[in-house]
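Appendix B, record 7
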Amino acid sequence: MVELKFTAIKPNGQLITGNLAAPTYSEGKKQIKALVEKHKIKLKSIQKKITYIYKIKKGNEAVIKGEQKAFSKEEVTQALTKMGYQVISVNKFLFEWDPKPPEQEVLSFVKISAELLEQKLPYSEIMTLLVNDLENKTLRETLKQINNELKKGADSQTTFVKHDRVFGKFTAYMLGLAAKSGNMTEIYKATAKFLERRMQFQKDMRSALITPAITVFILFLAVLFYVGYIFPETAKLFLKFDIPLPPMTAATLDMSNFLMNQWLIVVIVIFAPPIVLGWWKKTPAGDLFFSKWMMKVPIMGSLVHKTNIEVFCRVFYTLYSGSAESIEPIRIAAEATDNAYFEQQIKKIAIPMMISKGAGISESFAASKVFTDTAISRFHSGEETGTIKNTALQLANYYESETVFRLKNVIEMIQVFIAMIIMVVMIGLTLVSAETATINPSVR
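Structure tokens (predicted):
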């Protein structure tokens, strides 16, 4: 989040200042301009809170170096002077960059917090310990800001959600909710479990899809180099002496000539589709399309689908407190799946049915068409017996066990498939090379 401070002048000449936080500087400027236009005041200046590096000393003590975020150099100087320090220098941090912390760092923070909360340690002490101990600068500075705001009495949910770029949308919401609830330890443990499962699933997916894809791509480039450059140098020697080429050698040479003569088309055909698809996936329409069809592709689609249901059920179980308070947990659980299609179906079909028509949870979930028959059946039973919260946990555990087991089998199957592709390619190259070696020049 970017913190901005603006100064404006009222029609009567009175000077006013205000602060706000926004995801980006440009977004913050838009919000300030909208605010100025709404209240019909004249904007004078906008300042962004940035990092300053300072050097200070007190009496004959050694020089102390540090950094502080502020809206201006003067603000840092005044604050240090009031504390009794002699300010030697204050300069802007030239290359300020706050990258999003790795998910592993966020998970570590949530897990440690959950363990300390279970030991009945006060939350303020936990935050102080972690602020002093975390290595990731972005996460450490973010927690420091949150801790300071909470000590001033700020709303915990608003404070955490403001930093959703650092924690992620769902995690920020859950941590903010935990501080307001009477079940803080349980929510932190559930959030840690959610982050752990998501990271493990992403790791397994990379192992199942991305690593084999990279292997095949590198193999393809190696074959392309062999066919396009190395092989022609040998085959053209025979053509130079009018030696007839065997069928496979001739076909490979024709392919090589095509690749070399039409290299631009080949490059476009190889690289353009992934670039275009990657760009389109970042758009709302593309994200919705990929989210929908990722749950329908053979083999992997079923795993993705059931993992989405598992995440939904786990979050729903954590937040659900009764039928009268079911809408908000359902909405947050849908967002937690990180699947645009799943989220859309819940928000546009299931929730409206529950609100406008008074439909039950199982009926609404069935209408959304993103749950399996097993899940719908279990939700229906839970609804009838009043155990829907426990039903959600049972479904989450069931689908976790199933997806973990099946994904291991899929990874093994894909590895065997990749090995077969490599074997076929190597056999093909060996046959072509062997055929070339059998060519005998005719003696005249």
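Remarks on this record: Residues 184-240 form the longest helix (57 residues). The two ends are 82 Å apart (CA to CA).
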